[in-house]
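Anyone opening a protein record will find just a pair of labelled lines. The record below illustrates this layout.
***
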Amino acid sequence: MTLYKDQWEDIDVPTLEIALDDENPRLDPFSRSSQDAIIQYLIEHEGVIPLAKQINSFKGLFPQERVILIPGSSGYTVIEGNRRVTACKILLKPYLSVHSHWEKEIPIIDDITRNNIRSIPATIAATRAIADEVVASLHLNGGKLDWTDIGQIRYTESRFLMGRSIEELARELSVTEETIKNLLSRGKAYRAIQGLEWKSHERDILWDFRIDIQPLMRICFSPLIKKHFGVELFLHDGSLNYMFQDFEKVLRAITKHCIISQRIKEMRRVYKDANIQDYLNEVFPRKNTDKEKQIDFFEKKLPAPSKKNIDKSESEKNIPEHSQQQAEERKISPQSTTHHRPELFFEHLNCRQNDVHMRLLCRELRRVNVEDFRFSASFLMRVTFEWCLRYHLIQTGHWKILEEKHKKPKLSHMMSYAAIRENKVFPNENMANKVQDMISQGRINDLNYNAHDSIGNHSPERLREIAGDLRPFIRYIAEDAQY
């Protein structure tokens, strides 16, 4: 990493004009939808209110505590210092804390403090890429503010989705390309685990930023898995190996011992220095030597946990995991997060076209879910599909033909034109046929009705169908098409 003076500028920026970073790796995907959601997450999980009280006691920030900002479309976005900016914001405007019970905890500041935090000393980086190098040096590879494994994975994934190559990320972060590949593959594997069927409190734990996933990843990617079961649990790129029989049951058991146990008392816990072979032999015994046949690992109770790598209280009580009543009565640590994972149909959408508006739309569409934000999803799916289709028609030379027929072509005109196979708007006839199907099934009509009146079908089931139909077109235009 090389710092160039002309890429940085020191200025004071009005606190309330600074936007919080929705690409902050600390945030889960469901805390990035708005500034309020970010503030709520930082207050709940990152100790912002105690920090605000500390700032009030000192009547301001220390002089050396400059935040790092980047210029945005309307002001500045904070890349390093989200907690400090949030603390100052809620001191200036307590109602920004979202909930009234939090607002009561925020101290009333005097005029000296108000004047001191009205603006914040900041260093402006020319671009996010330049700022990222500095931020990464603070948080990755044993930096003084080291991120958790989940934070490192989220950071790497978000920058990869922005279009950075593995080579660029390795160079920026001063790590090997293999390290970047491992972070991406572990992230893919962990998302697959999160996508399994879990109880509500278990989902909360799995999405906690502070969870240590090293014990889980160490077992899941160990070559001893193949030696023990005969097949790998995950492929090299982090994809689930569907040739693994009962992979879901095995993964759930390992995840409970490695992850869920970090927040639930009286559950067997496996640590990152545990002997993997001993663990597999104990929990998943391979053969019944009397009958010489494979045992169903889940037809029997798990054996009592060994004394090795287990808390004393756990080995003494040895509560069976299969008891539903006991599971509900377990005490859950207050550290567990209150967020769970809804279904995201465009989660991995990555716009590679040189169109700023399309990139912004795709970026927001990645985060929207059709369960909790149905009208928002309707708006966003429709406008993204329309913009992408229009862009595709312009780039392929069809737009001029369409303009000759319609003075101001609407989405309905574009779809009707694209549905004609002879026009060859898309590289294969199946895509044209699919457009015709969407027209006949009223997909876009429902999105229009949802946007403008109350007669549209905005049920999650209907929106899932629409998202499933639109996704291949948006992905083809935004990611795959070469113009």
